[in-house]
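Re: the multi-chain job from yesterday

Posting the exact lines I submitted so nobody has to dig through the queue logs.
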Amino acid sequence: MKQTGRPRLFDQDKVIEDAMKVFWEKGYEASSTDDLCKATGLGRSSLYNAFGNKHDLYKRTLKKYHEQWMAVQLNILTQPIPVKKRIENLFTWSMDRDFEKNSNGCFLIKASVERSQSDSDVQKWGDVHAKFLEQTLLKIVNEGIESHEIESEKTVNDLVQSLLCSYYGLRTLNATIRNKKVAEQMVQATMTNIA
Amino acid sequence: MKQTGRPRLFDQDKVIEDAMKVFWEKGYEASSTDDLCKATGLGRSSLYNAFGNKHDLYKRTLKKYHEQWMAVQLNILTQPIPVKKRIENLFTWSMDRDFEKNSNGCFLIKASVERSQSDSDVQKWGDVHAKFLEQTLLKIVNEGIESHEIESEKTVNDLVQSLLCSYYGLRTLNATIRNKKVAEQMVQATMTNIA
DNA sequence: TGCTTTTTGTAACAATTAGTACAAAATACT
DNA sequence: AGTATTTTGTACTAATTGTTACAAAAAGCA
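And the result, structure tokens for all chains:
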């Protein structure tokens, strides 16, 4: 179903991705519409015509981020390798992202800490992302218990909650301490909890 | 040593505290100098005359926050009660702060996630606060091991890193999920790791 | 009483902010 | 070719931003 009217000169997905980088790096408040225009290459008219306003565009970036990384994390956690190794891979993968050049950590964590109190869209996507991770971990920890890969006196719930907590802690500390050696120790320390 | 000149009509400490609330709630970028004037009751002249500029005032609030809560946390962790109970108290105390009305979590965590990448003062105080917590935990976990209160095959370091990670994770998740029941479960799950 | 010093209130500054008005441009359909 | 529809570029808005200028006010000291 082709549209009538002048065709767009830009790729919508690419623009959302470019805008995401701006919000990710600077945060919502510190990102000006001018920054967004420059980063996306769009003029103000095109940006407002296509996305409504700054906050609507922000929402699109949150959704896109969630969908992208949910897929990646799900992939890591469903590989045909031992459960513990998969979990460790999730942690080392996150750590590697956190220590890439110009990394700003996890966009959704940053957005949640900055704004979830005052922005229900941020609240929603932060929540969705955390719940997804929790459910996925629950599934594979159960898998590990059934296959006797994981043997623990703790309940499945305790194991999962503790892992989720460590995951968010690692990513937050990586933004604070910024020391890869320390991060690696934390991953190892976390793994001892599902020994 | 009394100063010459017109005396101040305000209490410096009170002003820093009021300004802290603004930065804490809105973040640095979203806090306008007008917000700061209104919250502190000072005119623009007085504020700039006394604190230089917005960022210098921000620095004062970071320092004050660190010093205040460091004292509280240290007090919790050095009570004459079992080590495990002290650690649990640190977690429940933090959780209670996170679920107070209009809570914005830990100011330093929020500031670090928002700005530590681009603001060396935030970086510094976030780092100092984390290191303080780490060192204090190290001291009392050692204490717990020597008194045989804590018996674990894990190294002291692993225990401490895991606790620190869980602490930051809990506080970050409390900003994201905002569910006290879940938070309580996480504290319990964390405590099973130093069983 | 004057002189110095500091604080205070008012007014202003240039720059930036998010968002809009409007006409020209580019397409599809008739 | 002409019309409808959408996108685009330029210019603009009104409000807000952080910061400063300056004179009046309030104290100590001579």
